[in-house]
Design brief:
globular; three-stranded antiparallel β-sheet; alpha/beta; 13 strands; eight-stranded mixed β-sheet; 19% strand; 11 helices; Rossmann fold
Amino acid sequence: MSFIRKPKINYSGQRRNSLGLTVRDYEGGMSTLCAGCGHDSITSALVQAFFELEIEPHRVAKLSGIGCSSKTPAYFLSTAHGVNAVHGRMPAFATGANAAARDLYYIGVSGDGDSLSIGLGQFSHAMRRNLDMLYVIENNGVYGLTKGQFSASADVGSKAKKGEVNEQRPIDPVKTALAMGCGFVARSFSGDKQQLLPLLKAALKHRGFAMIDVLSPCVTFNDHEDSTKSYAHTRQFYHPAIDADFIAPREPIRAGYDEGQAVPIQLHDGSQVLLRKVAPDYDPTDRAAAFTYLQRCEQQGEIVTGLLYIESGRPTMHDINRSTATQLRDMPYEELNPGAAALAELQKRFR
């Protein structure tokens, strides 16, 4: 984590949201990542998303594991709650925190190594529980902190900086999320803030687990000619399946669309995601069709981006477990720990 404070300069004329806050109020410390790292572009989009959604920073809990990606939470929302967890174990921390204080906005920032290797089991079970959080994977195909070894998301045939060729099949977080029943699945590119920003805003307002896989090139170890996670390769094979706008509930809806060209999706809080179809045969509400479409595009060498699947109204972890309406953090100790007699009574039902 970085503890270098970013100088805060207030000048007249800065745009403020309804809370009276400027974009600067949503920033964090100075980035210690390599110059040009895609992760810093994602940070910029996150800062803008929270500012435009007018979310108070202290109402956010940001969590991460280990890796270059997991340093990102230090660079936005300096006054939010936050924790660096053990490598691959961030979803467990998020689950426990959400169980105790569900009224916060939860955002987990992870990487392809942190989520798809050591943390794959935790990542899968967070989706299975439908934990109410935004989960961002900053995907560069390498372990940047340990000198550029292939990660589990490296494509077959991709070359490392020193010439090694990856021969193992990758784990695709998007197809994994679809197979696990995730209700909000998207992919974007750190170099396309215009697409990434509305996706982040919609994901933060989605009730349940929202996963965004963001291709984020590593300029030090994986931005060369033969890498499939480089800036050049991503821009060449970039294929937007869905173009999305996010519309807040308190604003009048002015976006017009023709039947068959756009689909408005209502979220639980009244906000909308307006999906404009780029691929004429693509339906972002059909899980099986989305999976098939991804497979077809992958065979053609295309990197599909946009909001790839959305399903509103699925029960969350608290709905499934019938959690108490009183948040655990607000319950008196005597109720949280009723004693040995109450535990013995509870255990009778399992004998």
